[in-house]
Amino acid sequence: MSEIQNKVVIVTGASSGLGEATAKRLAASGAKLMLAARREDRLKELVAVIAKSGGTATYQVTDVADRAQMEVLAKETLNTYGRIDVLINNAGLMPLSPLDQLKVEEWDQMIDVNIKGVLYGIAAVLPIMRQQKSGHVINLSSVAGHKVFGGAAVYCATKYAVRAISEGLRLESNGEIRSTNISPGAVATELTTTITDKDTAAGINQLYAIAIDADAIARAIAYAIEQPGDVDVNEIIIRPTRQEL
């Protein structure tokens, strides 16, 4: 039996991209899923696809930047399935631009979703996992959390923060909570569509011409989850073979 079988997993940002691919892969391995995102129509479609394939999934419309909504997400998961084994903090934004463009509202959005959203997710599930004396938090960082790129200072800052939060959680785990930080490179998702600066968008689209499929990241997430309870996969970096940066 797979270690994923019957595990209760929350996936944020589940309406597309990495979240959708991960939901499908984990459902096929027998996980019980709570899918979270803002777009209810997409969530309904995904739950229907998973159910048609024999999987188990439900959803909760959630804005990760709203702490109260994240608390409701955890409560609804607990009410539905009786426990929470894994939280996948996947929701994220990447509206890149040079600092002198002063796109301060976009900076705020990245901080709210990419950092606060991760923290709110942890805050919502950590008391439950402590009570269970087991749990696993998987945070999606980026290669931008390992190297700063021009035009991406704020985004990189948010992803460095995710790595720091992941490591802090590991250090404070008391042997109960597993912590995994996954750092994708160029992956074919909707992430690049949030870039409003035309010059930056052109450069990123050139890089993403070599992007790998979202299921590559889903497979890495499944690998981290399916390890025995005494094995904690802490860090995975995944790039296209041709990506240099």
User: How much of the sequence is in beta strands?
Assistant: 15-25%
Structural class: alpha/beta
The gyration radius over C-alpha positions equals 17 Å
Q: How much helix, percentage-wise, in residues?
A: 40-55%
What would the average pLDDT be, to the nearest integer?
96
Strand order of the largest sheet: 3-2-1-4-5-6-7
What profile does the largest beta sheet have?
7 strands, parallel
Straight-line N-to-C gap: 38 Å
Described by the principal axes of the CA atoms, the overall outline is globular
Note poorly predicted spans.
none
Reading the helices and strands in chain order gives EHEHEHEHEHEHHE
Features:
245 residues, alpha/beta, 7-stranded parallel β-sheet, 7 helices, globular
Please provide a brief summary of the model.
44% of the residues lie in helices and 16% in strands. The chain is an alpha/beta fold and 245 residues long.
Structural commentary:
This protein has 245 residues and is of the alpha/beta class. Helix content is 44%, strand content 16%. It contains seven helices and seven strands. It has helices at 17-28, 40-52, 67-81, 104-132, 153-171, 198-207, 215-225; strands spanning 8-12, 32-37, 56-61, 86-89, 135-140, 177-184, 235-238. Strands 3-2-1-4-5-6-7 form a seven-stranded parallel sheet, sandwiched between helices. Strand 5, helix 5 (153-171) and strand 6 (177-184) form a beta-alpha-beta unit. The radius of gyration is 17 Å and the shape is globular.
